């Protein structure tokens, strides 16, 4: 798990999720600290090089080039990627911002790895209602719908060619947007992404099941 979130506490929620739902079958390593490190350097990063699966919950970081290159190698090897919350813009700084010396960005990450088209989000005051767009998809097995999320609705339409939206989010007064999808990333591996991930989402059985199923699907494991 590569974690550097600004607002959604995934440094707390994702390790707790892993301890409860992943520990029986997965060995989980957590690389974090990039939000507080002025060089955007992740601590405990070494396991990324040998990871079978990379879960990313990162907000606009430009890590040292050698760390980002390890992420690139993971993708190029065709290994699975799971993105949560702000991961669509994980390695893209705000317009006009420059990475520090020795650091690197990946502006095409959203298009090449996530399969999205992030351009912003709706007001944090709007509650998102989540419904099925592909109700027979195996990732939705056991996910009770609809459910509601306090996560602001990301503007991501249209998704990249080849992305398959499986959940739709709606808020009052605006067009619906995909809030979970699958994609075959540039390295040929599987991507599962959801821009959901508010702290209260992690307390909901529907979101817990969605994320667990998405991880298992990306890893090529059966979804029971």
Descriptive report:
- The chain is an alpha/beta fold and 224 residues long.
- It has a domain at 2-117 and 180-219: Class I glutamine amidotransferase (GATase) domain (Rossmann fold, 3-Layer(aba) Sandwich).
- Helices cover 21% and strands 20% of the residues.
- The protein has helices spanning 10-22, 65-76, 109-114, 205-219; strands at residues 2-4, 54-58, 81-84, 120-121, 128-132, 147-149, 154-155, 164-170, 177-184, 190-194.
- Strands 1-2-3-10-9-8-5-6 form an eight-stranded mixed beta sheet, with helices on both faces.
- Helix 2 links the parallel strand 2 (54-58) and strand 3 (81-84).
- The radius of gyration is 16 Å and the shape is globular.
- The relative contact order is 0.17.
- The mean pLDDT is 94.
- Give me the side-by-side strand order of the main sheet: 1-2-3-10-9-8-5-6
Q: What structural category do the secondary elements indicate?
A: alpha/beta
- Helix and strand string, N-terminal first? EHEHEHEEEEEEEH
Overall morphology = globular
Mean pLDDT: 94
Low-confidence stretches: none
Write down how many β-strands occur, each being a DSSP E stretch of 2 or more residues. Answer: 10
Secondary-structure arrangement, i.e. CATH architecture of the domain at 2-117 and 180-219 = 3-Layer(aba) Sandwich
CATH topology of the domain at 2-117 and 180-219: Rossmann fold
* Main β sheet profile: 8 strands, mixed
**Terminal-residue CA separation:** 23 Å
Give the CATH level 1 class of the domain at 2-117 and 180-219. Alpha Beta
CATH superfamily of the domain at 2-117 and 180-219: Class I glutamine amidotransferase (GATase) domain
